[in-house]
Every structure is written in structure tokens, then in C-alpha cells.
# Entry
Amino acid sequence: MRVLGIDPGIAIAGFGFIDKIGHKLTPVQYGAIQTEARTPPEERLKQIYESACALIDRYKPDSIAVEKLFFNRNVTTAFAVGQARGVIILAAAQRGLPVAEYTPLQVKQAVVGYGKAEKRQVQEMVKMFLRLSAVPKPDDVADALAVAICHAHSAVMHQKINEVKP
# Structure
């Protein structure tokens, strides 16, 4: 199973593709889609959409997991992040891919085992789970990989529950 994890943002949208085979998680590709601050919002969204489409087409995930929007005190930022999430979800929907959404609390619980874990703890667990030599940078990339790991664990649990049903 190949999962694309996304940590959405208008300036930086982190992404991470992982493969789950049995209990083993393997990183496939990860990085960030970055847009320039002085670029008009519609151009930034277009860049994010086109980059998401290209990544999905190249790495062919089975599903996409996106971090749910955590309401920020800065409403302008929250709207921009919501719009970035929207174009990424659109790219997935156009390709018929299922999209799962996870709160930051759910991601931390799945990756660290504690929903109020600190960012550094999540980053170190991402490094450990994927056997990476260093924590991916910028932070958005590690966060995207954490979302992918969360979904990989959740998908397995969902599959086990379905197997138990008569």
C-alpha cells in the first residue's frame, strides 16, 4: 500500500510518500511544495495544485492522508491553508483516490502514542519508523510523513476490523 501524506500550507505544503508492506514502512519520496510570498494567491494555489497533480501522477499512491485544519488565531492564514487543502483534495478526487483526514491529535497519537506529544517527539518517531538518517526538513515534511504513517497504521486497523466482521 502506498500512502501520500500531506501537511497543507500556502507557503509550504509538506508531502511524503511511504510504502507499507506487512509491518514495514518504507519512505518513497518526500519534500515540500513551496510558493513565493509575493505571488498572487490564485497563482500560489495553481502552483500547489499542479505540483500535487504531478506528484500523484508520478508516485501513484493508493490513498492520500491530509492533516485536518487546526483553527488558527490568524483567520487569514487559516483560510489560505484551507484553500491549499482544497486544491490538494481536488487533485486526489480527480484521480479517484480516497482521501482520509486526521487531526494533529490523531497523528501524534498514532506516531508517538500520546496525543499531546511535542513536535520534536513526532519528528524523532518519523525518523525512527522510516529508518532515516536525519529528521526531514523543513518541519512540514516531517509532519507530512507523520500523517502518512498515521494513515498506514489506521488503514491496517480498519482492515483488521473488517476481517473480523462476519
